[in-house]
Amino acid sequence: MTRIVAGTAGGLALEVPVKGTRPTSDRVREAIFSRLEHLGAVEDARVLDLYAGSGALGLEALSRGARTATLVDAARGAVEACRRNARALGFADVRVAQLPAERFTRDAPTVPWDLVLIDPPYDVTEPDLALVLRQLAADGVLADDSTVVVERSSRGPEPTLPDGWVLDERKQYGETSVYYVSPGGTAA
């Protein structure tokens, strides 16, 4: 069962789409958010959750004090699960978009994101992920002190970062690798 780990909605269960998703385990989510809270990257943040699945990452951020969350997934079942989860948790500051991540980031709203959580299916290719990251690097998409977190298979290559972005840290949890990135070129 997938649940919110901590915060105002801590312990509440999340609906997971029937197919096409690989939810981030509670253990990995707890580790990610412990680091992000240590960095001060969650409180009052505008959060973008790409390849959202159930919305667990973005909703976890809201539970821990983020200001808003936008959950993006191309699959209808995932988008419906995100909407139901946001309603069940009582979060009003959630936007859900049914779009491929590449299209959403290409046409990203002009609100700069403070925290971007990217957890694509493992079969998303490195060039496709690199395109999403390059589009996030466009002027005005990210706040000056933003943090980007990318979750990938430990068997795959390290994400290709846009020029000027800095890989602050890579953590491995079994089959999952988590990359913490500073887009502004200053390590956290």
UniProtKB/TrEMBL annotation:
Keywords: Methyltransferase, Transferase. The keyword Endoplasmic reticulum does not apply. The keyword Transferase applies. InterPro entries: DNA_methylase_N6_adenine_CS (IPR002052), Methyl_CpG_DNA-bd (IPR001739), RNA_MeTrfase_RsmD (IPR004398), SAM-dependent_MTases_sf (IPR029063). It comes from the Bacteria. Signal peptide: none annotated. GO terms for molecular function: DNA binding; methyltransferase activity. PROSITE patterns: MBD (PS50982), N6_MTASE (PS00092). GO terms for biological process: rRNA methylation. It holds the Pfam family Cons_hypoth95. Residues 151-188 form the MBD domain. This is 16S rRNA (Guanine966-N2)-methyltransferase. The lineage of its organism: Bacteria, Bacillati, Actinomycetota, Actinomycetes, Micrococcales.
